[in-house]
Amino acid sequence: MPEDIDQKFYTLSQEETLSQLNTSEEGLSESEVKSRQEKYGKNQLEAAKTRHPLLIFIDQFNQPLIYILLAATIVTFFLQEYIDSAVIFAVVIINSVIGFIEENKALRAIKSLQESIVSEANVTRDGKKQQIDTIELVPGDIVHLKSGDKVPADMRLLSTKELRIEEAALTGESVPVSKETEKLEKDIALGDRLNMVYSSTLVTSGTATAVVTRIGSDTEVGKINTMISSADLLDTPLTQLIAQFSRVIIYAVLILAVITLGIGLLQGYSFTEIFMASVALAVGLIPEGLPAAVTITLALGVSKMAKRQAVIRKLPAVETLGSTNVICSDKTGTLTRNEMTVQRIYAGDTVFQISGVGYNTDGEITLDDQQTDPQEHSALYHTLLCGLLCNEAKLKPQDSGYKLEGDPTEGALLVAAEKAGLDFEDTRQQYKRIDTLPFESEHQYMATLHQNSEGDNNIIFVKGSVERILERCSQAMDAEGNTQDLNAEQVEKHVEEFASQGQRVLALAMKTPQENLQDLEREHVEQDLTFLGLQGMIDPPREEVIEAVQKCHDAGIDVKMITGDHELTAYAIAKEIGIVEKDAKQETVNGRKIAETEDDDLVEIASNAHVFARVAPEHKLRLVRALQSQDKIVAMTGDGVNDAPSLRQANIGIAMGITGTDVAKETSDMILMDDNFASIESAIEEGRGVFDNLLKFITWTLPTNFGEGMVLLLAIVMGMKIPILPVQILWINLATAIFLGIMLAWEKPEPGIMTRPPRKDNSILTSALIYRIIVVGLILSICSFIFFNYALNELGRSPEQARTLVVNTIIVGEIFFLFNCRSLRLSFFKMPFFSNPLIFLGVGLMTLAQVLYTYWGVMNNLFQSAPLPFIDWLFAAIPGVIIFISVEFHKWWVNRNKQ
Question: How far is the C-alpha of 286 from the C-alpha of 248, rounded, in Å?
Fold first, then answer.
């Protein structure tokens, strides 16, 4: 029985590993399996402990603004204002339901992780091979892997045969990794542990026997599960500002309500009357329409983003995008195409360029920008021919090009040959394969034997690592097809040149043996090979990403690459797409350095560096937290299991819709359905537009609340009749929010929105907007107070008519102010007049509703309103005109001082 399963098994030999785990290649006995299951549990991920759903729902009411609304609900209910009470309570319930749904996102992510390891495994127990559910695996089990298998646990390899593992979802490595069994040095990155295989990765080719070292939550993917549970759930900038805003409102409501009650009692009002006035004040100061406005504005943003391939899973994430000032992006499949592409070929002492990207065969081979016919350059032709024939991959035609079946590296070689005019099927028929020496980690090459259509003897093609191929070559082919002395130094020089550009380099060679071979053995390719050339390939960046990164920089957004791939590759891609400037010399920070750096020191590194390579999941999480410690609003993009914790920790997590794992999608706030980094720029623009529209609504609605409160307070201080009742205040707040304010949500983003730097304010309103709100609120309150008393005392109107005049005055003022708020910066006269036709529809509906409020008997009874003569409507329009002129003058003054 193993005493310590925290051992770094990659540093042990196979024999030491088996000894440490107290097992053998004969496998465990059934009794030992049961004993270990009791000790270590099942091979499954444990869901985080969660509260009872009822407690989660109740917790949604624990918010400052909700306290006030609940208090207003209770008071209005006991005052028998049932309509007021029901409407306010409905707003509370809707907000709570939305919050309750969002609380369950982490649980769904962990459930997805659990499902990702449910499968069967081939094991040896008691010396016999058998199939079992992976959930039954224990440390010390002997497992047999084959092509297509999902690795069921973390395991130390005991033996392999051409084993290659797809680890992109876990490590970010863009191509399958060849595995080996030799023990390794200590403290190496996860992606470099070649003698280990990890749970939830995929066997792309070959076979292996391995011993289980960790199961369930102790695996690398299990650690990710734990990190998802422990990652902080951050409030978005919007929710933080709304919470701050709510606290201000609650203090204002409580203070003014107490002041109103005290003054009223001193003025001789009855307790019931002054208590009603205090309730009216509280209801007036609360922007009841704000929760609905926020929800509708964000929902509209969701709809607009969906049309641009960005699906929002969490409403506040819409606005968070607009606040983002750092994007941490994974490389493979996000910034790049996840399709290896040959870009350069060195053959016959000449370097050729190949155009085109991915598995689309459109492209050409050029030399000095001139198209080249490979048939006229023998070394080039045979380099391409070797890549096509010494190859196990297949390309299947589909609507958008080809779909690869096999290794991405071999797929790139096939596409390069097709661009040269070598047809896959015809060429393989012409050079029929006789035998194969498959790729093995020990030898680092693959060789194939073919019928030679150009001579009597068969021909051998070999491809593999540069080092292993060169040591077997004694000569090289020139452009005319003749052999010449091999200049290994010159070849190495070009290898370094290709590698410096982040390209993976393969060497290709051939041999025509003296005898007509029918069986290929290792000894046949140990020497006397003819060097043909090099093919340099890379997973190329998406074409549209370069422009998207530049737009992000123009918008003041810092873009960082955080990947599990190699440093040279990551840096080359970063320079190509503009994350790092072409002429800049910046350090690439690797995972080892991150691991060795304390959290305090990591803050500076995270801020200054732009490329992070060979990064493990826990490193990504630390980097995101380091950036957030500097008050950065961080967006993290990714598609793999390894991205899940940092996606959750980030202010906004962005998963890829096509290549993204279920775990990444479930953890994210937003999913890019086209896997296109460029769509983020569009989403950020929409997010900024959403915040602008929310700000317009808040700026528009607050003067009403301020004005209602002030007119009540003024009347009480002067010992006069209450000018407006609670039910009338509720009518104003909700009706205008629905018919007028919500229409601002359809305003289009203003010009230059993506050239503004990210928002840095830690409050919703600027001093200029606060000034504007106070001025408009004072105009509404003073005019309402004067009109109420003038109508009551001079015009002989009834209290119901006077209060109806006050309601109409406030609403008409809001209509005029609505047109001011279509832009908080630009003059109304500089805005396209009909760019938002819903504004005019809303004004029409509000006018109709107010006519019904004034003249329809049902509304008169419901809201204690009364019909008015026409001249009173002219009174109501006066403050609206004053407001419109005042606000437009203020905009002009502010813009003039900025110039």
Answer: 11
Q: Is the distance from CB of 142 to CB of 130 less than 8 angstroms?
A: no
Residue 405 · residue 397 · CB < 8 Å: no
Distance of CA 481 to the CA centre of its chain: 52
> Which of 581-585, 721-725, 845-849 ranks highest by mean pLDDT?
845-849
CB atoms inside a 10 Å sphere around CB 82: 10
> CB count, 10 Å around CB of 662?
17
Instruction: Describe the chain by its helix, strand, coil percentages, rounded to 5.
Output: 50, 15, 30
Beta partners for 165?
A: 177, 203
Q: For residue 811, give the nearest of 745, 891, 715, 737 by alpha carbon.
A: 737
Q: How far apart are CA 539 and CA 503, in angstroms?
A: 8
- Considering only residues 752 and 478, tell me which one the structure prediction assigns the higher pLDDT: 478
b vs e for 567-596, b when ≥16 Cβ sit within 10 Å of the residue's Cβ? bbbbbbbbbbbbbbeeeeeeebbbbbbbee
Catalytic positions are 330
Q: Which two tokens stand for residue 101?
A: 């749904």
Number of CB atoms found within 10 A of residue 609's CB:
19
β-pairing verdict for 652-656 and 670-672: parallel
Q: Determine the Cα–Cα distance for residues 259 and 419; give it in Å rounded to an integer.
A: 83
In whole angstroms, what is the distance from residue 244 CA to residue 764 CA?
Answer: 9
Distance, in Å, from the CA atom of 606 to the CA atom of 615, rounded to the nearest integer, reads 13
Concatenating the DSSP letter of every residue in 611-647 gives: EEES--HHHHHHHHHHHHTTT--EEEEE-SGGGHHHH
Q: Which residue has the tokens 């030399």?
A: 367
365-387 burial by CB neighbour count: b if 16+ within 10 A, else e?
A: beeeeeebebeebbbbbbbbbbb
Which H or E run contains 328?
strand 326-329
d(CA 73, CA 91): 10
Helix (H) or strand (E) holding 238: helix 237-267
Question: Over the stretch 545-585, which tens digit does the pLDDT of each residue have?
Answer: 888 898 889 889 999 998 877 888 888 889 888 998 876 67
Average the pLDDT over 130-135 and give the result.
Answer: 87
Instruction: Tell me if residue 471 falls in helix, strand or coil.
Output: coil
Could you tell me the CA-to-CA distances from 757 to 551, 577, 581 in Å, in that order? Answer: 12, 21, 20
Average pLDDT, whole number, for the chain?
A: 83
d(CA 94, CA 294): 12
Mean pLDDT (whole number) for 795-816? 92
453 token code pair: 């259509």
Structure letter (DSSP) for residue 336: B
| pLDDT, position 406 | 78
Could you identify the residue written with the tokens 């993917």?
Answer: 221
What separation in angstroms does the CA of 697 have from each of 390, 450, 764, 769, 820?
A: 66, 74, 11, 12, 11
Condensed to tens digits (0 to 9), the pLDDT of residues 834-846 reads 889 999 999 999 9
> Which of helix, strand or coil describes residue 5?
coil
Q: Dihedral of CA 220/226/228/234: which sign?
A: negative
* Lookup: tokens for 508: 């290709």
* Packing angle, helices 567-577 and 488-500, rounded to 10: 60
Phi/psi at 519 (5° precision): -125, 135
Cα distances (angstroms) measured from residue 735 to each of 142, 253, 731, 739, 800? 70, 21, 6, 6, 19
Distance between CA atoms of residues 415 and 660, nearest Å: 25
Q: CA 813 to CA 824: how far, in whole Å?
A: 17
Residues 6 or more apart whose CB falls under 8 angstroms from that of 398 comprise none
Q: What residue type is 830 in one-letter code?
A: K
The answer to whether the CB of 92 falls within 8 A of the CB of 73 is: yes
Q: Which residues is 405 bridged to in the sheet?
A: 394
- Alpha carbon dihedral 173, 179, 185, 190, in 10-degree steps, equals 30
Structure tokens at 616: 């493990």
pTM of the model: 0.67
Alpha helix positions (H), 268-306: 271-285, 289-306
